[in-house]
Design brief:
The complex is a heterodimer of chains A (about 400) and B (about 110). Helix content of chain A is about 70%, strand content about 0%. Chain B has about 110 residues and is of the alpha+beta class. Chain B is globular, with a radius of gyration of 16 Å. Chain B starts with a strand and ends with a strand. The chains are: A mainly alpha (about 400), B alpha+beta (about 110). The interface between A and B is small, with 10 and 10 residues.
Chain lengths: ~400, ~110
């Protein structure tokens, strides 16, 4: 055991065990602050002990036990915590190790608590990344371009509200479950999208840390509720998008659109896994939700060895299906882009122009228009549309790509 | 655990007979299920009087402390084991009185 072996083990344990440790402590002590602080202390102890004593055979159990002791020390130190109920729990602290199922339930409870609808959406995102994902406050602040102190306050306020308003630490009842799972998925999708198409002039265009974390949490949720079609759908969707990551930007940091990507650089293992999950959902015969249809669209794209092999009629049919589930102008825009491949740019442009009043500040709308106008040879109008798209684009690789396209107009 | 469910009034109309009847039904259910603590309707901001006797000056001001378009027209105090239960009750209360409500825990 070298110190560097121990460091690797601690990094891995942090990645895999943080959420478990916090969740187990949150259940035992009913307090997210204590759970988080004790988990952090346990990891700090591991940093001291593991290089000297060696990595314990079961790092997760070691960390949970150590964190439990730290939590009890902390509660004893804080004299105001003299509530009889907590004292009674402490007396019975020598619980036998939890069976695996119970630990998984703990994490599921923690996810639902962090994603409670009584918390603002951005707060849910931050709290989930902190408590379940184990990201530091500094990392979350960096990811969402806010000051670390502001992010710290947001998380602190959320934990205070959970405690004061008594947001329950449990998996919602059957009647609340579907709506609450939808909220959790929205949080994970937000995290993923911020990683996939990062906003802001001074950030990397893609942040693999966030996409990887969103996928990890989606995998966890999928393990915990395997029969939920939309959970499976979102996981498949993320995998199929992530599979194309390496091909999505050029060496110069330019965004490479789907039709120009080197398909040999796609991750075949992620694609195979995404396809398998979608087939699994199809086999149930249940009507798919929004994420499942989006995943299916991505499955069609990733099935084509070459852009010319793309089954556009199937993609158009899926977008039509999606329009019924989500009648937003953004979906209508994407459907029109697929339509261009089947019926030509003029038909697509007519369909897109009807969306103008609702999408005037949405840069993909102007980028799509610019592309169609370019294909129709309407250079001046295309240039104007590129200018508008460039003004509105917040992702650095996208801006670079749009500027390049505009300069090619001649 | 007790929660204050405030009814937010944002138009000039008071509860209609129909709304009042729905509120009565909701209240009876709260009592039957053991969630009822207390409830009441309030006079509008025009009926408010603000006092400041912190310096023994006995300053009395006519009218409300804050002028807002939305104000609290009534409230429930409900007993509920956690926020999920309180939110479910508050949702039914909002439906019954046909107004927005705000839920806050007692500390």
């Amino acid at each position: 055991m070298t110190p560097s072996d121990a460091r690797v083990a601690i990094t891995q344990a942090h990645r895999h065990e943080w959420g478990r440790v916090v969740a187990a402590l949150a259940r035992k002590f009913g307090d997210l602050d204590i759970a988080e602080e004790a988990a952090a202390e346990a990891f700090a102890t591991a940093v001291e002990r593991w290089p000297v004593d060696g990595v314990p055979p079961n790092p997760g159990a070691w960390l949970t036990t150590t964190a439990g002791r730290k939590a009890i020390d902390r509660i004893r130190r804080e004299s105001k915590r003299d509530d009889k109920h907590k004292e009674a729990r402490l007396v019975h602290d020598d619980d036998p190790p939890e069976p695996l199922g119970a630990i998984d339930d703990d994490r599921l409870r923690l996810i639902f608590t962090c994603c409670h609808p009584a918390l603002a959406v951005e707060t849910r995102v931050a709290l989930t990344l902190r408590m379940v994902g184990g990201l530091t406050v500094a990392e979350i602040a960096r990811a969402f371009l806010v000051q670390e102190t502001a992010m710290g306050q947001r998380i602190t306020r959320a934990k205070a509200k959970i405690k004061a308003a008594r947001i329950p630490y449990r998996v919602p009842s059957a009647e609340d479950l579907p709506a609450r799972v939808t909220g959790v998925l929205a949080v994970l999708y937000l995290v993923f999208n911020e990683g996939y198409l990062a906003t802001g002039p001074s950030t990397d265009p893609i942040r693999p840390g966030l996409t990887t974390e969103a996928i990890r949490l989606a995998r966890l949720l999928h393990t915990l509720v395997p029969d939920d079609g939309e959970v499976t759908g979102l996981l498949a969707l993320m995998l199929l998008i992530e599979a194309r990551r390496a091909a999505r930007t050029s060496a110069t940091g330019d965004l490479v659109p789907l039709d120009e990507q080197n398909r040999g650089a796609w991750d075949r293992a992620l694609i195979a896994e995404g396809h398998r999950l979608i087939r699994q959902r199809l086999a149930t015969g249940e009507a798919p939700g929004r994420y499942q249809v989006l995943a299916a669209i991505n499955a069609v794209h990733t099935s084509a060895p070459d852009i010319r092999d793309t089954d556009w009629s199937q993609i158009l049919a899926l977008y039509t299906q999606l329009t019924h589930l989500d009648p937003s102008p953004v979906v209508a825009l994407n459907r029109a882009i697929a339509l261009a491949e089947l019926d030509g740019p003029a038909v697509a442009l007519a369909a897109i122009d009807s969306l103008a009043p609702r999408l005037t500040n949405y840069h993909p709308f102007h980028a799509a228009r610019a592309d169609l106008l370019r294909r129709l040879g309407q250079t001046d109008a295309a240039r104007e549309a590129y200018d508008r798209a460039i003004d509105l684009a917040a992702n650095t690789a996208e801006s670079t790509h749009l500027i390049r396209r505009r300069s090619q107009l001649g | 655990m007790q929660y204050l469910v405030s009814v937010i009034h944002d138009d000039s109309l008071l509860a209609s007979d129909e709304e009042q009847a729905a509120i009565d039904v909701f209240n009876e259910q709260l009592v039957a299920d053991g969630h009822w603590v207390f409830a009441g309707g309030l006079g509008g901001p025009a009926t408010a009087t603000v006092l400041d006797n912190r310096a023994d000056a006995g300053v009395v001001t006519d009218g409300p402390f804050v002028e807002t378009r939305e104000y609290i027209i009534g409230f429930w105090v409900m007993e509920a084991p956690d926020l999920d239960v309180a939110l479910r009750l508050a949702a039914a209360g909002s439906k019954a009185c046909n107004r927005k409500v705000e839920v806050r825990p007692f500390l």
